[in-house]
Amino acid sequence: MVSAVDLSASVGAVRLKNPVMPASGTFGFGADAARLYDITRLGGAVMKGVTKEPRFGNDQPRVTDCPAGMLNAVGLENPGIDSVMKQELPALARMYKGPIIANVCGFTVDEYAELAARFDESQDVAALEINISCPNVSHGGMAFGTDSVAAAAVTRAVRRASGKPIWVKLSPNVTDITRIARACEDEGADALCLINTLLGMRVDLRTRRPALANTFGGLSGPCALPVALRMVWQVYEAVRIPIVGMGGVSSARDAVEMTLAGASAVEIGTAALVDPSALIRVIDELPRVITEMGYARYADLVGKAHQGKG
Length: 310
Ligand SMILES: Cc1cc2nc3c(=O)[nH]c(=O)nc-3n(C[C@H](O)[C@H](O)[C@H](O)COP(=O)(O)O)c2cc1C
Description:
Elements: E1 9-11, E2 14-16, E3 20-22, H1 31-36, E4 45-46, E5 63-66, E6 69-72, H2 81-95, E7 100-104, H3 109-120, E8 125-131, H4 142-145, H5 148-161, E9 166-169, H6 177-186, E10 191-194, E11 198-200, E12 203-204, E13 209-210, E14 217-220, H7 225-238, E15 243-246, H8 252-261, E16 265-268, H9 270-274, H10 278-292
Parallel strand pairs: 3-16, 4-7, 7-8, 8-9, 9-10, 10-15, 15-16
Antiparallel strand pairs: 1-2, 5-6, 6-14, 11-14, 12-13
Helix pairs in contact: 3-5, 5-6, 6-7, 7-8, 8-10
Bound molecules: flavin mononucleotide.
Flavin mononucleotide (FMN) is lined by residues 23-26, 48-49, 72, 74, 76, 103, 131, 134, 169, 196-197, 220-221, 224, 246-249, 268-271.
């Protein structure tokens, strides 16, 4: 019976009524999404990456499409921590009563710590998603996520600055993601989120120049799913802390695949930019997919692909 399926999920101490959350940067601070669909149905709400100062982001063009996905070089456009604490976060908390996750992006270790301490003051924030993987800024961002020493330093500093659960968001643009994952776990991360976008580019035939003003951008969408699954699988085998899986999820079946590979919950980004109802569709479809697999609880699927390989 489909209605009997228990969709509840947990990422460490953070309990979600279902495992489906919007991926940071594709949900803004919730206001636009709330006009398009019922955001109260979401398992969690992940805010756009927040920096210390307001940022206008990179020059245009900063988005282009590609087979089975998109490239973006938005460059962390956001109103900055002061505005988010005063306006965007309280506004989201009025609309959405479930767990709100703050995505934090610094340009130095101290900045990450400072931002974490600011969010620590808010009762509206359930967890911090520490973005050490943004490929679209000239310094900071991905530089921390591609070096295990730097990733450890950010995690340590954030751990000291905040008592909130810390989810570190990893970059796929590395040879061995398990080294970075372990470094973050060793410094007290409560969970790991993966993957951020894959570094890519396109060339515009008309101008014979890179299609993005930033030259490079982050690849996301369905084309990223197999890479994300591979990395979630590897990280699941390497650490004990929970994983939030993302990268190319666009259906309930994709979400279940991610879960079987080791994710305790999923985030969905690009699919919602193509079809704003994607997250609600996945939430609605999950019970049927889980029932067809012979299960009654979403949580029982986590990491199942690793057990006895069956
Ligand atoms: C337009 C856009 C903006 C993004 N901004 C952020 C961001 O601010 N912080 C972050 O951690 N990830 C950001 N991401 C990465 C997504 O959260 C996600 O990790 C990635 O897109 C893979 O998931 P998807 O294939 O479902 O989109 C952004 C992605 C897109 C497409």
